[in-house]
Amino acid sequence: MVKNEEEYLKNDYNNLRIVRTEILFTPLLVLLPLVIAGFLINNWFFNGFSKGISDYDGELMLAIIILVCNIVFDIPFIGSLIHFKKK
Amino acid sequence: MVKVKIVEKLEDARKIINSIEYDPHWYRRVFHTFSASFIVYYMLPKLYWINFLKIWIPVAILIFIFILEYLRINGKISGNHFFGLRMYEKKRISSYLFFGVAVFFLLLFFPQQIAVPCILCASIADPIMGEARQRLGEKKVYAVGFLVCLIFFLVTWYKAELWITLLFSIIGATGAVIGETKKIKWLDDDFMIQILPAILLLVIWFCALYLGLNLPDPIIHPGIISW
């Protein structure tokens, strides 16, 4: 945390706007990649897997990459939002 | 009396929000992984009006962020409206603009087979390398970054012949790691991690076409989102 305070543009005044903006953006940042991954899985399943076409397997692999990586980074991000520490 | 209480409560709420310890670290990381969503571009169906929008919406977004960044650097818009910026970005172009420019070039001017893994390198490999740098040390960053980028290129090129897949993947992953780790003052790593491997692969791509080699089809099929 100390390191971040040195690295990032941050002061008492902009904290207010920063946190508010961060909270407003959170649903978009977290949900959109999951939706995109869902579209890819949907396409793989209905156009590829159910018809026995392997051409769509790459989309499944991309979906898994996007899904797993986003969830891995979303968890500590949401955790940092939930654990509001007061001075 | 009621008005005074409301004002006091609003002031209290403001103090509470101001007292929150905000950690921009994870915010930047999630912003990176979120940008993997840009590949939705390739899911859009090939209709005339959508093809038109696929060119002009990225152009409009790019112009908008250029203007925004110009106004920020010149102090016309307060830096307080921007979040997660690093200290060194105070007086220079921010990383998000470099990222946007690189994605713009990749989506509009590069084949999907090259653009998709390069965007994944910037959006996913970059934050993984950042975490690896903090947890494992500088030396292991290169190995971790190379491995992650290699996976992205292998996944995108798995349909090609094995030696072509390996050639493109190794060169692409090497270019991405060099682009990420070798920082230049006026050229951000978010730009280099995408454009350096893309240019290297584009040269090989044209050589392969010239030699008549079979290159794989795009991995993402358009038309997933029906209207």
Provide a descriptive summary of the structure in words:
The complex is a heterodimer of chains A (87) and B (227). Chain A has 87 residues and is an all-alpha fold. Helix content of chain A is 79%, strand content 0%. The model of chain A is unreliable at 1-6 (pLDDT under 50). Chain B has one domain. Chain B starts with a helix and ends in a 16-residue tail after the last helix. Classes of the chains: A mainly alpha (87), B mainly alpha (227).
Quickly describe the structure.
The complex is a heterodimer of chains A (87) and B (227). Chain A is mainly α and 87 residues long.
The rough form of chain A would be described as elongated
Largest interface: A-B, 48 and 52 residues
Q: Percent helix among the residues of chain A?
A: over 70%
N-to-C terminal Cα separation of chain B, in Å?
55 Å
Structural class of chain B: mainly alpha
Rg over C-alpha atoms of chain B, rounded to the nearest angstrom: 21 Å
Give the total of domains of chain A: 1
Low-confidence stretches of chain B: none
**Rg value of chain A:** 19 Å
Number of helices of chain B: 8
Report the biggest beta sheet of chain A as strand number plus sense, adding barrel if it closes.
Answer: none
- The quaternary state of the protein chains shown equals heterodimer
